[in-house]
Amino acid sequence: xxxxxxxxxxxxxxxxxxxxxxxxxxxxxxxxxxxxxxxxxxxxxxxxxxxxxxxxxxxxxxxxxxxxxxxxxxxxxxxxxxxxxxxxxxxxxxxxxxxxxxxxxxxxxxxxxxxxxxxxxxxxxxxxxxxxxxxxxxxxxxxxxxxxxxxxxxxxxxxxxxxxxxxxxxxxxxxxxxxxxxxxxxxxxxxxxxxxxxxxxxxxxxxxxxxxxxxxxxxxxxxxxxxxxxxxxxxxxxxxxxxxxxxxxxxxxxxxxxxxxxxxxxxxxxxxxxxxxxxxxxxxxxxxxxxxxxxxxxxxxxxxxxxxxxxxxxxxxxxxxxxxxxxxxxxxxxxxxxxxxxxxxxxxxxxxxxxxxxxxxxxxxxxxxxxxxxxxxxxxxxxxxxxxxxxxxxxxxxxxxxxxxxxxxxxxxxxxxxxxxxxxxxxxxxxxxxxxxxxxxxxxxxxxxxxxxxxxxxxxxxxxxxxxxxxxxxxxxxxxxxxxxxxxxxxxxxxxxxxxxxxxxxxxxxxxxxxxxxxxxxxxxxxxxxxxxxxxxxxxx
Length: 541
Prior knowledge:
The protein is of the alpha+beta class. It contains 14 helices and 23 strands. It has helices at 48-63, 72-95, 178-181, 186-193, 197-207, 228-233, 287-302, 332-336, 343-361, 422-438, 469-478, 490-498, 513-516, 518-540; strands at 6-13, 23-29, 33-40, 104-110, 113-119, 123-128, 131-134, 140-141, 144-148, 161-166, 172-176, 216-223, 248-249, 252-257, 264-269, 272-278, 311-312, 321-325, 330-331, 365-366, 375-380, 383-388, 395-396. The strands form 6 sheets. The chain has a 6-stranded antiparallel β-sheet, with helices on one face. Strands 1-12-11-6-7 form a 5-stranded antiparallel β-sheet. Strands 2-3-4-5-10 form a 5-stranded antiparallel β-sheet, covered by helices on one side. α9 packs antiparallel against α12 and α10 packs across α11.
């Protein structure tokens, strides 16, 4: 689930007048995962506080890089088991007895699922529809609440209580130490839980007249909404294995396959033509492929702007597909086989791509694969307009793991696994502009799996004499290999396109001074020769 849908809070108070307690908690949120760990270091142990901190940090740190093949359950159990072994061995070595001892509770939210575990008597509660339910299990001696039967670091083996639950909008998940629930009834906890961890712990302190008998900590995870992507993923929809001309899916009749893999078709319904795109059949078995497709559908559904084709996801569909309006045009790549764009049309195209990119940035997204194949040229009222396609390449800005993009349009730093950002998108826009005016690439075509070398750029004006110098300067800055000299944002590039008379001359760092500032060179030469002649004259005299 997106971290934007989960609000987190945590707070801790030491017992009585002590400054530092034995409790410790960690909360971390990644793109689609939230993890909270709360530990209560056993006070009777010499190193309880140290153990609590070590356990929380160990689990959270390891969760950053869990193998893709691991389930959340395996990760939780593996990390708890490993830190238990580490602390027990260290205790025996340093103290000759268990002293690095702590309880632990772990809560992980991914998608619409809650994964939890505990060892000891720190608890996890779920608050839903005004009802508070304990999800964890107390490891205490029966009838002796203050005696633990299990905790991290007590023994070389550990008993882990594990559970899973679905979560819903407005759920609250509470992790707390026994210092909280021992002084507050569940009714009082439920009353103050909606106000977050700070108010919950402060209420416990006020009930004890600001003299808490034990360290008291709480972490609250508030589910503000269920991730739309997760909702779409849970739908019970089929994925057709094979599709052929004439097939009818929910009233849409397939008429023409557009892609070699037969997953994208022109279709007809009620005498209207559409483009229908199905999920890959492999998505039935491969969750990563399914996740990518669902993100594509979600983007097609929510991104509504004039530079995208109108798209919809029928509510009554029985299979995994989405529908796009069929555009009456050809791709820019097809157009360029016969002719280049005029300068005016190339400027219109570039402004369209920049507007599209700025729109996506509002959602913290980038297109990821800007190129002529993903641009449709449409003639309307004797004007050319441009539409951008391929929702499948759209990804989060600053993404490091996404492999979106086509080699010839990738910024040089992308070949070194740099993050996708405004500057890398501007490079793709610059290459597309260059190709639209010349049918060529600024640094030559780059093949897949090639390790390219970016040498001197070929000036676009050498291929197209109609390109004005100010536009040449924009192309040079947008496609500069040195990202420090490239446009830093879309707005700056758009400003220069709108104001040709304000576009400065562009030079690379290795451009000779004579080319960058000939007047300065001539002035320097003039004064140098003047001084030299003066010296020679003085010698003759």
